[in-house]
Design brief:
19 helices; about 400 residues; mainly alpha
Length: about 400
Amino acid sequence: MVAAAAVIVSLVFLFVPGGRGHLLRAYLMGYMVCFGFAGGGLCMLMLQYVSGGKWGLLLRRPLEAMSRTLPLVALLLVPILFFMKHLYQWAAFPNAKETAEAYARGLMTQEQMLTANSKHAMLNPTAAVVLSAIIFLVFLTIMALLNKWSLERDQDPEAGTQESYDRWRIKFENLSGIGILIYVILMTAGAILWIKSLDVTWYSSIYGLQFLVGQGYQVLALSILSVILLSRFEPMKTLLRTTEQHDLGKFAFAFTMLNIYLCFAEFLIIWSGNVPDEIPWYLARIQGGWWVICSLDFICHWLIPFVLLLSRDLKRNKTKMVWLAGWMIFARCLDMFWLIEPNFKDAAGNLHLTNNLGILAYITVPVAVLSVWGAYYLTELMKRPLMNVNDPHLEEILEPEHAH
């Protein structure tokens, strides 16, 4: 219902000045947040299998449900690939001849023309479709195996024995270990293709890792939100004890700090280097009205979660953690807006509503996309029992709690 209402409102922007461009950009923003949940959920699931621990048993079903939304996320990518020439310069001018013509007509700067020509091997429409297909083919294969084995593990005739535990643990570890490496490589390629290449001249050696940590940030927020809301009822009511909730809060705090470190370190290196080829990306995001958005991103995305998660009592309070997890998801959406919109020429004058109602698409379109994804996620979450019964950590969680 929320998605339908948001779609109807979004259609209005087709008839306002600049609205169509904002619709596509806003769709990309909503899509990348959904991809972060689905792909990040798969990566976090593999991380749990190779690291072990009770925390993963609590989050395993939500993470599996997130990973099973990958088919929907793959389908949602189709409009972006179909209309890519309206988003990416390299797609609008896919060869050297067309970039030269665009430069002559003032549609590209000389730096954009030269950079686009040097990156055409990866950044061209055909390569974009092929790379996207490879990314989702690999991710869907890993997702299908992990989810299939999870059910087979619980139905194992030898369930509850040490032999069964060891056999399945080794099987999951073998796939997840190499799977994480493959995921990081392909996710980095996808982040470069779908987001970073919006500015064809921008480059960053740490961008993939930043995106990976951002995915962990938002996945943990949604996972914590899910298990706390589910703890109103059994079996999660018994299984989510104060100790486990505290551990999840500390895990979220670790990702918040890592997120801060990576983003600030990149900014500090570029600021100290002061190289003309690197600083325009930041100048576009801190000049004029974008300084307000930059400040809000810093406060919402980093400062508030960091300060609040320092509190031991807050991490153990279910109500406060629900609100904070929801806030972190909102902050991730704001951060994605800060990453996407300033890449476009008209971005400098887009932070107002006068003759620019299309900018509101950045609210309605992501709400529509995230609502569709959220409904599918909840549907997948309800398809399976909330606990893996053939896991030795289940006995540990069921033991009496001694922490206060």
